[in-house]
């Protein structure tokens, strides 16, 4: 029986130090730096292939595994099909229960309750946001998200020109200061594409 850790942050700019510190006692740790909305995370899939019967998958919080109820349920089923169990460090520990089957049953019940609570809280937040927007619209105060750049913005047009000349999004960001993800959204919004012949040429 091995304890296998899994840690995740949502972007490459975030660090895993806090989670790795909490997982120091495990035998092996798999880590991803990507959104929890996708289940096709390389190290998550590697962890699922690696675990064996009797192993314990350890995470600091349940949302490190997934962000919605259905994905979490599917992941828990895959872990259980391998004969492994899931331990979530910020949930009550069942280590004092000697009977393995009873410990697994109670552990799964606690996780199900937590999933239900988290899903309910997300729904309440969305409902409150919708109510707030509706109220603001009634009062004429809601304007929606404001775009950072207009299409004729000189800096944005310069960025488009560099891109069409063969600059990568990273190089455009370095030259203009426009975040590459923001730039990609604006390219898609205004239909800025370049031919394959211009790729890598500048």
SSE order and pairing:
Layout: E1 3-9, H1 17-22, E2 28-33, H2 42-50, E3 56-59, H3 69-81, E4 85-88, H4 100-138, H5 154-164, H6 169-176, H7 180-190
Parallel strand pairs: 1-2, 1-3, 3-4
Structure description:
The protein has helices at about 15-20, 40-50, 70-80, 100-140, 155-165, 170-175, 180-190, and strands spanning about 5-10, 30-35, 55-60, 85-90. It is an alpha/beta fold. The chain folds into two domains: about 5-120, 3-Layer(aba) Sandwich (Rossmann fold), CATH 3.40.50; about 155-200. A four-stranded parallel β-sheet has the order 2-1-3-4. Helix 5 runs antiparallel to helix 6 and helix 6 (about 170-175) crosses helix 7 (about 180-190). It is extended, with a radius of gyration of 23 Å. The protein starts with a strand and ends in a 12-residue tail after the last helix. About 20% of the residues are buried. The mean pLDDT is about 80.
Number of strands: 4
Tally of alpha and pi helices: 7
Radius of gyration computed on alpha carbons: 23 Å
The ordered string of helix (H) and strand (E) elements is EHEHEHEHHHH
The backbone outline, from C-alpha atoms, is extended
Distance between the termini: 56 Å
Mean pLDDT: 80
Number of domains: 2
Question: What's the CATH H-level superfamily name of the largest domain?
Answer: Resolvase, N-terminal catalytic domain
**How much of the residues is beta strand, in percent?**
5-15%
| Topology-level CATH name of the largest domain | Rossmann fold
Query: Largest sheet, order of strands side by side?
Result: 2-1-3-4
* Alpha-beta classification: alpha/beta
Q: Under the CATH scheme, which class of the largest domain?
A: Alpha Beta
Largest sheet, strands/sense/barrel: 4 strands, parallel
């Amino acid at each position: 029986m091995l304890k296998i850790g899994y840690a995740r942050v949502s972007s490459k700019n975030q660090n895993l130090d806090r989670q790795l510190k909490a997982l120091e006692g495990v035998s092996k740790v798999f880590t991803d730096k990507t959104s929890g909305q996708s289940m096709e995370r390389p190290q998550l899939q590697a962890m699922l292939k690696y675990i064996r019967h009797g192993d314990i998958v350890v995470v600091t919080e349940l949302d490190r595994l997934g962000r919605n109820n259905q994905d979490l349920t599917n992941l828990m089923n895959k872990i259980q099909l391998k004969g492994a169990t899931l331990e979530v460090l910020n949930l009550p520990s069942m280590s004092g229960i000697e009977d393995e089957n009873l410990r697994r049953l109670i552990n799964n019940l606690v996780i199900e309750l937590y999933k239900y609570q988290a899903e309910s809280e997300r729904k309440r937040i969305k409902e409150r946001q919708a109510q707030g927007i509706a109220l603001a619209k009634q009062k004429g105060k809601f304007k929606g998200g404001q775009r950072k750049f207009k299409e004729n913005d000189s800096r944005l047009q310069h960025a488009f020109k560099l891109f069409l000349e063969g600059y990568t999004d990273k190089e455009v960001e370095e030259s203009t200061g426009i975040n590459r993800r923001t730039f990609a959204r604006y390219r898609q919004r205004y239909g800025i594409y370049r031919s394959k012949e211009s790729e890598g040429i500048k």
